[in-house]
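F.,

This is the one I mentioned.
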């Protein structure tokens, strides 16, 4: 990416309209650029035949385009596809395409690495390298669609990184992908997951982020959550739950997703299930129970199926919606950050 030029895929439709004014051409050409770049994934601006020469010259002078290189790809038996995408500076991130009934969900990374340090997460072991730009996140979506040959229907910001540690770029990314005159993803089909950045959750509310909210909760006591998600020492469970309840109250119809990674002997007891029921009592939420996906060197184990089912039964008894999520792509390097780690080891 040429740093003196603005990356086109980091722009909304209204940014492109302004660009047309600056270039001295009719604003309708913003639509032509959107149709070619965002709808047909064309990364060669010089090939757009519907825009005038003046605009071509302006684009060549001021605007850049880039496509990340796909440096590794794995396809699981269930259709889950994991890609390692190399950004122009050589830094790599993972993105995952998950096939479901009548939907294709793409899991997007928002940072190269992560600073949060969750002890069950492989991505955390390398720390944070840098934030991704909005354009790089859009490039992940475009690469996912181009490589799979399919239209992505749902986007989850649950890959490498804590999205709310990269607030401005993530806000811009959400605006670009949900822009009705641009990529036009429905905000109902976009979900941002956070490890619990309480002040940023309130800021999301103020800024009316066009997406759903997911919380990576994973514990029912501060003692356990402090150990597995260090950010809890700053923003403990009570403050996080309070923020979520206010979020739901103000956003009305939005159902929040509560993610609960189940770690054998750590957070999977029936006492935990009862505490979780009490914490979430009356909350408009769906709980995703995610039995831990072990990776080489992990210090946690996956609970057995009977333990997971018994945990779920307590939540259902308490009138909560709790779904046990099967790990997709278990025959490939399914844990977040695993494929990149394996590639680095081979080098
Ligand atoms: S689980 Fe998410 S927030 Fe926690 S370290 Fe991993 S990438 Fe960061």
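My design for it:
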């Amino acid at each position: 990416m040429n740093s003196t030029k603005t990356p086109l895929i980091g722009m909304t439709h209204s940014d492109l309209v302004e660009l047309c004014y600056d270039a001295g051409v009719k604003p309708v050409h913003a639509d032509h650029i959107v149709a070619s770049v965002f709808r047909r994934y064309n990364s060669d601006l010089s090939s757009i035949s519907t825009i005038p020469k003046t605009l071509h010259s302006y684009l060549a002078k001021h605007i850049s385009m880039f496509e990340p290189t796909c440096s590794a790809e794995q396809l699981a038996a269930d259709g889950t596809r994991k890609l390692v995408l190399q950004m122009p500076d050589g830094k790599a991130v993972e993105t995952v395409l998950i096939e479901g009934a009548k939907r294709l969900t793409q899991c997007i990374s928002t940072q190269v690495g992560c600073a949060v340090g969750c002890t069950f997460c492989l991505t955390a072991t390398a720390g944070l390298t840098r934030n991704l730009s909005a354009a790089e996140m859009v490039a992940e979506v475009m690469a996912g669609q181009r490589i799979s040959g399919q239209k992505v229907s749902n986007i989850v910001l649950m890959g490498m990184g804590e999205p709310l540690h990269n607030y401005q770029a993530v806000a811009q990314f959400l605006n670009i992908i949900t822009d009705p005159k641009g990529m036009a993803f429905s905000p109902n089909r976009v979900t941002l997951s956070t490890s619990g950045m309480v002040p940023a959750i309130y800021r999301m509310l103020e800024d009316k982020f066009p997406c759903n909210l997911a919380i990576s909760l994973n514990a029912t006591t501060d003692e356990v959550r402090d150990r597995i998600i260090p950010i809890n020492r700053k923003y403990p469970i009570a403050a996080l739950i309070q923020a979520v309840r206010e979020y739901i109250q103000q956003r009305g119809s939005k159902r929040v997703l509560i993610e609960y990674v189940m770690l054998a002997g750590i957070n999977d007891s029936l006492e935990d299930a009862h505490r979780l029921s009490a914490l979430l009592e009356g909350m408009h939420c769906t709980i995703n129970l995610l039995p831990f996906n072990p990776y080489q060197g992990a210090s946690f184990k996956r609970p057995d199926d009977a333990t997971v089912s018994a945990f779920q039964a307590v939540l259902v008894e308490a009138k909560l919606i709790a779904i046990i999520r099967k790990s997709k792509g278990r025959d490939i390097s399914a844990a977040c950050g695993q494929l990149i780690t394996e590639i680095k080891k081979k080098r």
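The mean pLDDT is 92.

Talk soon.
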